[in-house]
Design brief:
Number of domains: 1
Structural class: alpha/beta
Largest sheet: 7 strands, mixed
Strand order of the largest sheet: 2-1-5-4-3-6-7
Order of helices and strands: HEEHEHHEHEHEEH
Shape: globular
CATH superfamily: Glutaredoxin
CATH architecture: 3-Layer(aba) Sandwich
Distance between the termini: 41 Å
CATH class: Alpha Beta
Helix content: 25-40%
Number of strands: 7
Length: 173
């Protein structure tokens, strides 16, 4: 019995941290339209039409330490992100009300999007065993293609460097 529990927990941990199911760099990004915390509808295609790259941050939960730190790092680098011509979208299945409270409390200048049925998370390979979200960051170029992808909580410097390379039209491995 103990062996079965260890194997199950190891499989669960592996499913959260693996890179194998990331969408390949250079592939077209799955399109989506989701509801933001403020009730507006946000579409990935809007970023491309505006000539912007998009940073998609799939994160497990609002008001948790790591998720808050990850999104606050983007908030604190907002000027650099904007200068690079990028939009940022935080995505998870939490409700509009929960997202709105989280966004206001932390003064996020970017929308938090509700993926209630987790269809977008699934399309981006971010669903794990047990229904949790795999913490993942994607950069989508203004051409609508995946320019960079990383599991976990990459440093803001890594995200900004990849964004700079993506904005110059180079996909980033």
């Amino acid at each position: 019995m103990a062996v079965a529990v260890v194997v199950l927990l190891a499989g669960y941990w592996f499913s959260l941290s693996t890179q194998y199911d990331l969408l390949p760099v250079g592939n077209p990004a799955p399109g989506f339209t989701l509801t933001a915390a403020d009730g507006s509808r946000v579409s990935l295609a809007e970023s491309a039409r505006a000539g912007h790259a998009a940073i998609l941050v799939f994160y497990p939960g609002d008001n948790t330490a790591v998720c808050t730190a990850q999104l606050c790092a983007l908030r604190d680098s907002w000027g650099t992100v904007q200068a690079a011509g990028a939009d940022v979208y935080g995505i998870n299945p939490a409700s509009k009300a929960k997202h709105l409270d989280f966004a206001r409390r932390n003064r996020y200048p970017f929308p938090l999007l509700v993926d209630a049925d987790e269809a977008v998370s699934a399309a981006y390979g971010c669903r794990a065993l047990g229904g949790l979200l795999k913490r993942t960051v994607y950069i989508i170029g203004s051409d609508g293609r995946i320019a960079w992808a990383q599991r976990g909580k990459p440093e803001i410097s890594q995200i900004l460097a990849a964004l700079g390379r993506a904005h110059r039209g180079k996909v980033v491995p």
